[in-house]
Structures are given as structure tokens and as C-alpha cells.
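re: ur question from yesterday

yeah so i grabbed the chain u mentioned. its 194 aa long if i counted rite. heres the sequnce exactly as i have it in my notes:
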Amino acid sequence: MVLAAVCTAIVVAVCLRRAFRRYLVRKSEKYEIWLPVVDDAGHVMGRVAQSVSEETPGNFQHPLIRMLVRYNKMLYLQPRSEDALFEPETTDLPIEVLMQYGDNIDDTMLKVRDAYFPDSPKPRFLLKYQYENQEGKWLVLLYIIEVSDRKQLKLIKHEGGKLWTARQIFENQGLGFFSHILDGEIAFFKTLLS
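ran it thru and got these C-alpha cells back, copy pasting raw so excuse formatting
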């Protein structure tokens, strides 16, 4: 009789521990940011928690949207924030979005446009390429948005941000002023800025 009571208590304790563990996992998943894992073509292969990806940089490739903002044949560039994905405080493009699992690229682009440039046309896709650094592995989707009214730039203004001419950009390329990712994209900009 005592043995049966002890066995029952053990089974109940194990079941309660498992239920509590499942509860904690479900609760933590609500607050965890999930990133899509994509192949080289951009097809979603699965998902991984952002915290896991940050702990093991380079093991997973994630889609990263970057957007050129062009006004009157000039590009708007600004310093990266202190909490940027990589290379904080170097000069770079003003908009960079790390896609989250379940997000749609077209919907994300329209949300960015509506938030910052509601009077501009839909952003145009330019280029898809892979980029890897010590913080991770990225499938970069580069877009451009044409801004016709300079007042729209106020919505993305950051201290130190400004419009750059092609000449200014080319003169500062490779001098450590721009982020490495932007330095690599500048060769492609030559045709856009001319």
C-alpha cells in the first residue's frame, strides 16, 4: 500500500514537472523572435529563435532587406545606430529590416513605404546577394525607393544623416567611413547615380 502511494506520488511529480516545462516553453515562445532560415535562393527552410542564431553566428542564413533612398540623383545615408545588427555607428543606408518568420517581403516593403514614404511609389527590387560577417550570414535583398519630396526624408532623419552625391560616395569608398556591406554595394550604385 505504501509502495503504491509512493509510486503514484512519483508519477504525479513527473507529470507535473513535464506539464510545467511545456508551460514554460509555450510562454517563452510567445516572446521569442523567430527568424526564417533560408537557402541561397531565398526559400524558407525552417525557423530558428533569434537568440539561438546570435549565439551561433553563421550557422543559419536569414533574409535581410536593405533599402536605398534616392532623392534628386543623391542617396540618403546615415550612421548606423548603436544597436544595429553589425558595424554600429558606421555610415550606411537608412533602412534595414531583418525579416521575421512568417513575414511576407511584399507586405514588409509596403509597411516600410507607408511608414516613411507614403507619397512615394512602391520600392523597386534591385539585387539579391549573400553577405557574411562575424555576426551572421545574410541573404540581402536590396531595394530602392525614389523620393520626390525632400520633406519625406524628415521621417527617417537620424543625427548625422544627409544626402550624398555620387562623387562624395566614391571619394569615401574603402576609407572605413562606410559599413563594409555598403562599401560592397557601392560598385553597383555607379549606374544608379549617374
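noticed a couple things. Helices lie at 2-31, 50-55, 105-116, 166-172, 180-193. also The chain has two domains: 2-31, 35-193.
anyway ttyl
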